[in-house]
Amino acid sequence: MRKTFTSYCLLRKALCLLLAWVLLTAPLLHPSVALAWGAFTHKDEKELGDKFNALIRSRMPIVQDTEIVDYVTGVVNRLAASLPPQPFPFKASVLRHNAVNAFAIPGGYIFIHTGLILAMSNESEVAGVIAHEMAHVTQRHIASRIENSQYISILSLIGALAGAFLGGQGGSAAMVGSMAAGQAAMLNYSRTDEREADQVGMNFLTQAGYPAQGMVGAFEVLSRRQWLLGGDIPSYLSTHPDLQERVRDMGVRVSRLAPAKQSQRDDNSRFLRVQALIRARYADPQTAQQAFARQLEGPNRCLALMGMGVLCSRRNEINDATRFFDQALTCSPDDTIIMREAGRFHYLKGDKNRGFGLLRQTVQRNSNDVLALFYYARCLGDVGSTDEAIDYARQVLRKVPDDSEVHDLLARLYGAKRQLFSAHLHMAYSGLYANNERKVQQNMDKAKGLVKDGTQKSQLERFEKLLKERKEYLK
Q1: d(CA 371, CA 409)
Q2: Does CATH number 1.25.40.10 belong to domain 299-473?
Q3: What are the pLDDT digits (tens) for 358-417?
Q4: FRET label pair with 368: which of 30, 58, 171, 192, CA 20 to 30 Å apart?
Q5: Whole-prediction pTM value?
Q6: Does residue 94 contact residue 56 with C-beta atoms inside 8 Å?
């Protein structure tokens, strides 16, 4: 729990740092901002969002499993479809993190923690939190705070940051104390933002066809966690003690909705499948085992058996994992998630023939499953079908272009074919997305020495352009 809370605090600090960077350097970097603090345009929002997105994706573990990502993207798109025209599309990413949280930033980027999906009971509760965060973007709350920063001194902002980073250590305590008024002003403004996000977000939720009770339920879950765990909840709850009053206000709004909107219901079929995947792969094993044990006698028995198989494989309990996967496949032989997870398990434990067969069936039935395609490409590479393996790996790359492991696989496949320029270029990409500066430099230098034609030169130039954009995030 301490590790989770510490990581969450670091994420919040990263956002504060980026916001501080924009406030301090915007007059030097962007003419439109230099003209007046009140001119923070949509273009500036996008630039801020792009930079923060790159920062997060270089520092936090991102879930690339399309079964999970496509589900969350579908929820976001369903909500976005009911919105008025926006200056930029919403883009969803899933962070592998146990904090019960989601956040949105200017530019339309939304980040959903796996912990949020695990903590909720219905899809509408997840959608309720996302709708709240989308409202922060549509109402330009962060942008407005930047525009109004002429009323909050930079020194005050530095004091707030010193308090977040250092607390009472050293000389920071005096600085924080002297800036209390500025921090309070920022907090009061943010409290107003949160109430507006509650109201606007509930409108988004119901317009998308979700039960309005989903937002109430989500905030009730978060309220219980606030009481039980203190810090391990989103900042918009931990900083505002009037959460129960907000939940009551939401309940009143729900009771006043038209009967047609009050009768909207959840379809949790896909939510439960994704939740089972996340619980099996990322949750605390003991907690996950307890949850799956409760489900073994219910309607979700097949997914629970799969979950137990994944948990046992995480513990290296190979015989138990094999037994659970066999039972899951017998329970639901056509379920592509179960098929994929069983195939992945058998391949990684060394039973490559069985793994190969299950993964091939998965790919044949669901050609959009990135994880199945990735492991199937590995299988093909193992048996010497290198060209076919490259074709499948490139399909994966089109869906997840910033995945270090996919580039690493392609590098090894091209190396097996003695296509050394492509091998080193993909190894450089792998290093870039793994934040390994030494790996980047070594392989980029080798790729430069292997350029033979204009196509390869253009490929290298594209990499160098991307490297320049992301270099500040490399370790």
Answers
A1: 13
A2: yes
A3: 999 999 999 999 999 999 999 999 999 999 999 999 999 999 999 999 999 999 999 999
A4: 58
A5: 0.81
A6: no
